[in-house]
Structure formats: structure tokens, C-alpha cells
Design a protein that fits this description.
Strand order of the largest sheet: 6-7-8-3-9-10
GO molecular function, one term: ATP binding
Membrane topology: Multi-pass membrane protein
Helix content: 55-70%
Number of helices: 19
Structural class: alpha/beta
InterPro entries: ABC1_TM_dom (IPR011527), ABC1_TM_sf (IPR036640), ABC_transporter-like_ATP-bd (IPR003439), ABC_transporter-like_CS (IPR017871), P-loop_NTPase (IPR027417), Type_1_exporter (IPR039421)
Protein name: ABC transporter ATP-binding protein
Subcellular location: Cell membrane
Radius of gyration: 34 Å
Shape: elongated
Order of helices and strands: HHHHHHHHHEEEHEEHEHHHHEHEHEEHH
């Protein structure tokens, strides 16, 4: 599905269309199963008329043999159909999860706008499962309709009034079932939205648990989650009541319909219009009709919930990209000359900045928002509202975002580690084995490996929480350095590292990045001391630039930012 295109209806259709080779045979087998079940009371009625009424043992054996064949066929078809249908649902949900994952990871971004990570996870799991279940439910719905048709034909053979009663009564029942499902659809959507929000809040609180404990804000966090979870529970209960009311109403309608069929059949038998065997068949068919009607009620409820989930999935898939345009492939090798021309973005106000190829430049700002906006512009996660950023003379807006990020890496201050071994974390995106070793040394992460029980093969906890803050920073820095990108932007990579280690990192960082463009967005004196040049951002614009030692002496704003 293309970015920005699908609707909820299209998501549902694509989920079914993608599983046609499974849904079609499952539907066919399900229809055979239901047809055979519908024929069971017909065969029993025929056996009563031709065998019991006449006392013929041979006729009885023939009808019993036919019943045995019917049960063998219907049981085999049911097992096979159910297995294929369940597989179709799982494959459809898996395909939706892949599409959602691809959209969230799309280099142009935009899918995570105004959505918590936990909410996206809920959409990719619960909503994808509900939409995928359509591929499972559809064969059951087809089988139920086949059962109703076969029953109607059988009743027409027994009695035209009975057959017409079923044929004319089914469409209004189906229409009423669809109308009754509307409240369920609306409440299911609200339920999923509330559940996704609660999941997002929970994930957000867990990820910041240490900070919350340090601030003593656990009670406020618990109160926030309690409120959110109670709202989610209330929405879930409303949806459950709606589903119970939906199924109860449909069963009541079905019960009345079946009772009418039984009464009409009994009346015809009393008048002699049908035989005793026909009456048994008619009553058996009337009782059997409860099963397909229940299947239709189940399918209708699943479709209602799937439509609500499909709309939520479509909203993610159709999210507008954070950056648009850019199909050009960088020509040849990347020198790494970066230039910002009159860039306006957020707190940046007309920034002009020249970063020569192979330079090591420090950027100092006391405004965290301005630093963040600069990182967004360099990574092309957001395009400037005015002005542009260039790489080797080509505006970033003209370059393919994925190819651009293979040449420009912006490593944020809060870079997370994966739940894998330390070496696997550093190898992620590494240029080669030799770059991994060099990166470990430059970041002093090799010292971290010597402290761990299994060295570099030690498996880290989620987000690297088994390491100290300084150790995590060193491993994250090693991962960034191992990529050997032509342009590397580092944001406060050593804030949790002691001063002695920070000085060693500063010296090794300069050597490891020699000949490559490096930008350090930081206020660390140790890192700024090894740069070729430092640029000061104040009030969203460049106010000074020079060597670290010069600025410390001559610029009061710089001195307050760096030495405070």
C-alpha cells in the first residue's frame, strides 16, 4: 500500500485479497461442511418415511451408510477449512504488521507524529490481529450462507411455504444484523484507541522509571496511569456490553424466526400437507438454522470490530510524510561539506553555517530546543520552513532520505541500545570488523567490555539498562563511530562520563575522525578543546565563532555556556 493512500475499507479489502488462495478453498470446504450438516435432518426424515414406515432393514442400512458418509465428509471439511482459515487470518495480520513496520520505519517519517510508541505497538498487534481475523471469518460467513441456501432448498422440496419463509426471511435478518452492529463498531474503535493510549502511557512511564524515581514522582506517574487505564477499562466494558447486546439481539431474532418455521411446519403436518418424516426434517432444519445464524452473528461482530481497527491502521499508513521530495542519488564519493543557508526551523532564526569537508566543528548553544532543531535539520527529519541545508553543494531536499542517512549520521544524546550483546550493538551499521575495534578504542568502550562477565558478548538488558549511564554513552558512541559515515553529528556524547575518561575520548575522537566531517553539539570543554572551530548559537542564530581558547577568553555568552 502506498504511503498516504489507503482507507479503512481498502485495508480490509487488501487483507482479504492478499489471502485469496487460502480464503477461497477454506470457504469452499466450509460451504461443503455446512451443506452436509443441513442434509443430515433431511436424510433422517427420508429414512423415517422410507425405512421406518415400511420396516425395510436394507433401506435403513442404506440411509445409515449415507449418514456415515455425510458425517465423514462434514468433519473432514470442517477440520481442513478451519485450519486453512486460521492460517489465512494469521498471514493477513502478519502482512499488515509488516506494512505498518515499513511505514513507521520509512525514511521520510511522519507515522509517529502525535503517537506514542506504545500506541503504535498496539495498532501493529491488536488492530492488525482484528483486521487479519476478517480472512478467518469470511469462510465461516460463506459457509453459513451456504447452509441457509441448502436449508431453504430442502424446505422448498418439503413445502413451498416453508422454503419461501426461509428465503424471504433471511435478507431482513441479515440487514437487521448489520444495523445492530453499528454501535459495536463505534465502541470498538473507541476501545482500541483507549487501549492504545494506555499502552503508550505505560511504555512511556516504564522507559522513564529511573528518572521518575529520582524525582520522587512515582505517585504522580501511578495516578496518571490509573486514570488512563480506568478510561481504557470503561471503554472496553462499553464495547463488551455492546457486543453482548448485539449477539443477544441477533439470537433473539433468530430464535423467533426458527420458532415460526417450526410452527408453520407443525401446522402443515397436522393438515396432512407434509409427512411425519418431512416434519422431522423441517424441525431438524429449523434447529440446525441456529448454527449458521450464530456464525453470521459472530462474523458480523468480527467485521464490525475489524472495520474500526482498519480505520486506525489506515490512519497510520496514510500519515503524511514528515519530509517530501528528494529522489536524487548523491554523485560519487561524499566529501562531507555541509552548509546551512539562512535556515529557519523552530528556534533557529536564519542560521548560516559552513562545515568544511573533513573538519571537526563544535556547536554551542544554551537553548536545548535550538540544538534539537539543528539536529532535525541536519538529519532531514524535518525540512526548514525557509532556507536550506546542503551536502557537497546539493540541497538535502533533493536527496533521497535513505541514501542521505547512509552518508550523514546524527547520533542523538538519548540513543538507546538494543537488547543484544554489546558487540552486536556496536556492529549495527558498522562499516567493517576493523571499524568496530577502532570505534571501541576511540570511545573507550573497550574498557567497558573488560568489566563485563562475558566481555563484548555480554547480553545487555532492555535499552542497555544493565550498564551505567556513562557505559551506555560509550557504547552508543562506539556504535556511531563504527559506521564511518562521511558526516557524523554527535549530541552531548559524554555527559555521563567522568572527566578523565572524557579527555581520553576527546583525543581519540579527533584521531578516529581525521579526514571526515564531524560536528559536536555540546558544551563540554574537553570535547570543544580538540575541535578546529567552535560556533556559538544564541537566540537561534550564529553570534560568534572561533577556537575554543579564544572564545573562552573573549565571549561572555560562550564562557557562561561552557564553564558554568
Amino acid at each position: 500500500m502506498p504511503v498516504g493512500g489507503p482507507t479503512g475499507g481498502l485495508v480490509l479489502r487488501e487483507a482479504i485479497r492478499g489471502q485469496r488462495r487460502r480464503v477461497v478453498p477454506a470457504s469452499a470446504l466450509g460451504m461443503i461442511h455446512q451443506a452436509c450438516e443441513a442434509l443430515v435432518p433431511v436424510v433422517i426424515g427420508a429414512a423415517i418415511d422410507s425405512a421406518f414406515a415400511t420396516g425395510s432393514t436394507q433401506a435403513l442400512l442404506r440411509w445409515l451408510l449415507l449418514l456415515g458418509v455425510l458425517f465423514l465428509v462434514l468433519s473432514t471439511c470442517y477440520r481442513t477449512s478451519a485450519r486453512i482459515a486460521e492460517g489465512a487470518g494469521e498471514h493477513a495480520a502478519h502482512r499488515l504488521r509488516l506494512e505498518l513496520g515499513a511505514r513507521v520505519l520509512d525514511p521520510r517519517g511522519g507515522a509517529d507524529a502525535d503517537r506514542l510508541p506504545g500506541a503504535l505497538t498496539s495498532i501493529a498487534t491488536n488492530d492488525a490481529r482484528r483486521v487479519g481475523s476478517v480472512a478467518t471469518v469470511l469462510p465461516y460467513g460463506c459457509a453459513a450462507i451456504a447452509a441457509l441456501v441448502v436449508s431453504a432448498v430442502a424446505l422448498l422440496r418439503i413445502s413451498v411455504p416453508l422454503g419461501l419463509l426461509v428465503l424471504l426471511g433471511i435478507p431482513p435478518l441479515l440487514w437487521l444484523g448489520h444495523r445492530i452492529s453499528r454501535p459495536l463498531e463505534q465502541r470498538s474503535e473507541t476501545e482500541q484507541e483507549s487501549a492504545a493510549h494506555a499502552s503508550g502511557v505505560a511504555a512511556d512511564l516504564v522507559s522513564g522509571l529511573r528518572v521518575l524515581k529520582g524525582m520522587g514522582a512515582e505517585s504522580a506517574a501511578v495516578a496518571r496511569y490509573r486514570t488512563t487505564s480506568q478510561e481504557s477499562l470503561a471503554a472496553a466494558l462499553r464495547a463488551a456490553r455492546s457486543r453482548a447486546g448485539h449477539e443477544g439481539a441477533l439470537l433473539a431474532l433468530t430464535g423467533v424466526f426458527i420458532a415460526v418455521i417450526g410452527i408453520v411446519g407443525a401446522y402443515l403436518a397436522m393438515n396432512g400437507s407434509i409427512s411425519v418424516g418431512d416434519l422431522v426434517a423441517a424441525v431438524g432444519l429449523a434447529q440446525f438454522l441456529l448454527a449458521p445464524f450464530q456464525l453470521l452473528a459472530y462474523a458480523n461482530a468480527e467485521f464490525a470490530q475489524a472495520r474500526a481497527s482498519a480505520r486506525r491502521i489506515a490512519e497510520v499508513l496514510a500519515s503524511p510524510a514528515a519530509v517530501t521530495g528528494g529522489e536524487r542519488t548523491p554523485d560519487g564519493a561524499t566529501a562531507g561539506h555541509v552548509r546551512l543557508r539562512n535556515v529557519h526551523l523552530g528556534d533557529l532564526r536564519g542560521v548560516d553555517l559552513d562545515l568544511p569537508a573533513g573538519s571537526l566543528t563544535g556547536v554551542v548553544t544554551r537553548d536545548p530546543a535550538a540544538a534539537q532543531d539543528l539536529l532535525l535539520a541536519l538529519a532531514r527529519e524535518t525540512d526548514p520552513s525557509d532556507g536550506h541545508v546542503e551536502l557537497d553543494g546539493v540541497p538535502l531536499t533533493e536527496l533521497d532520505p535513505d541514501l542521505l542517512r547512509r552518508r550523514v549520521l546524527v547520533s542523538p544524546h538519548d540513543a538507546d541500545l538494543f537488547e543484544s550483546s554489546l558487540l552486536d550493538n556496536v556492529r549495527a551499521g558498522a562499516a567493517g570488523p576493523e571499524s568496530v575495534e577502532a570505534a571501541l578504542t576511540a570511545s573507550t568502550a573497550d574498557e567497558v567490555t573488560r568489566l563485563l562477565p562475558d566481555g563484548g558478548d555480554t547480553v545487555l538488558a532492555e535499552r542497555g539498562r544493565s550498564l551505567s549511564g556513562g557505559q551506555r554513552q560509550r557504547v552508543a558512541l562506539a556504535r556511531a563511530l563504527a559506521t564511518d559515515r562521511p558526516v557524523l553529528v554527535l549530541h552531548d556524547p559524554t555527559t555521563a562520563v567522568d572527566t578523565v575518561t572524557e579527555s581520553r575520548i576527546a583525543a581519540r575522537l579527533r584521531e578516529s575522525r581525521r579526514g571526515l566531517t564531524t560536528v559536536l553539539v555540546t558544551t563540554s570543554p574537553a570535547l570543544l578543546a580538540v575541535t578546529d572551530r567552535v560556533v556559538v548559537l544564541d537566540g537561534g542564530t550564529v553570534t560568534a565563532e572561533g577556537r575554543h581558547a579564544e572564545l573562552v577568553t573573549a565571549n561572555e555568552t560562550y564562557r557562561r555556556a561552557v564553564l558554568a
